[in-house]
UniProtKB/TrEMBL annotation:
<keyword id="KW-0238">DNA-binding</keyword>
<dbReference type="InterPro" id="IPR009057">
    <property type="entry name" value="Homeodomain-like_sf"/>
</dbReference>
<feature type="compositionally biased region" description="Polar residues">
    <location>
        <begin position="185"/>
        <end position="208"/>
    </location>
</feature>
<feature type="domain" description="Myb-like">
    <location>
        <begin position="53"/>
        <end position="103"/>
    </location>
</feature>
<feature type="domain" description="Myb-like">
    <location>
        <begin position="1"/>
        <end position="52"/>
    </location>
</feature>
<keyword id="KW-0677">Repeat</keyword>
<feature type="region of interest" description="Disordered">
    <location>
        <begin position="181"/>
        <end position="209"/>
    </location>
</feature>
<protein>
    <submittedName>
        <fullName>Homeodomain-like protein</fullName>
    </submittedName>
</protein>
<feature type="region of interest" description="Disordered">
    <location>
        <begin position="131"/>
        <end position="155"/>
    </location>
</feature>
<keyword id="KW-0539">Nucleus</keyword>
<dbReference type="InterPro" id="IPR051953">
    <property type="entry name" value="Plant_SW-associated_TFs"/>
</dbReference>
<dbReference type="GO" id="GO:0005634">
    <property type="term" value="C:nucleus"/>
</dbReference>
<feature type="domain" description="HTH myb-type">
    <location>
        <begin position="1"/>
        <end position="52"/>
    </location>
</feature>
<dbReference type="GO" id="GO:0045893">
    <property type="term" value="P:positive regulation of DNA-templated transcription"/>
</dbReference>
<dbReference type="InterPro" id="IPR017930">
    <property type="entry name" value="Myb_dom"/>
</dbReference>
<keyword id="KW-0804">Transcription</keyword>
<keyword id="KW-0805">Transcription regulation</keyword>
Amino acid sequence: MKCKKGLWSPNEDKKLRDYIVNHGLGCWSFVPINAGLQRNGKSCRLRWTNYLRPGLKRGGFTKHEEQIIMTLHGMLGNKWSQMSRHLPGRSDNEIKNHWHSYLKKKSAKQENIKAKSMSVDIVNEELSSASSIKSRGSSLEPSQHMEELSAHAEPSDYSKEVHLKIPPKILFSEWLPLNSDESQEATTDGGSLSDDTQEGISMSNLQPSPELDIENSIYDLIFEDNMCPNFNIGDVRMYSCDELYYYASPSLLNSGSL
DNA sequence: AAGGAACTCAACCGCCCCAGG
DNA sequence: TCCTGGGGCGGTTGAGTTCCT
């Protein structure tokens, strides 16, 4: 069979998602055959883990997440899959991309600043020891050196600027049923997406573990209520309650959960 | 407004590990 | 013990998008 490459079409996504929801995760080599996809097993696995898997939190990384990645990278190196285990909802590929596109430079800059400040310390040390010999010391006090250095340094959290320019988004798995009508539609197409009593994998088994922070709490709330909207919802931390209400579905609001 | 540079991100490639025959 | 196939992982690519001059 000729294997297709390149971007996945919505139709292919639907086939893969339907198959896994109905049959669960098994041997990836059989998935494309059974699901009627002209893809290889690896491609299907990648598409599922990086894009279709429920619980994926897409969009901009928060400062907290970036901090975790920076720390973990210092400890683990390029162990992206291990890092992803510490960041619920983030795939290893996403973390890797973010590192290469942004955090690597940020990390390098921080290292550079650290190295500069260390060299300034050494220079100052030498100057102060020289001043004990000569009556005149350095023209610049150590604190002045640091001021000069920090004037050229990037703001320590300039990621904030990026987040303000491009508001981070949480993308609730687009394909999840928006309402019962869609679930019904899915049933006619081979099986219900939300029927826990059905044989095979159940949606409850696919849900992410609950997190305590507000972001994930709201995520869980919407996810568990099976009301994932087919649009990107702005990162809730960036919105006022009124704006959040604007995005949330009526049934969620009526539940009084928010 | 246009064109090039820089960036983002989905996806592929190739290597490695491990289990089963 | 060797071979083979599946799965996981990290590196890399390339198309699309955004930014900058």
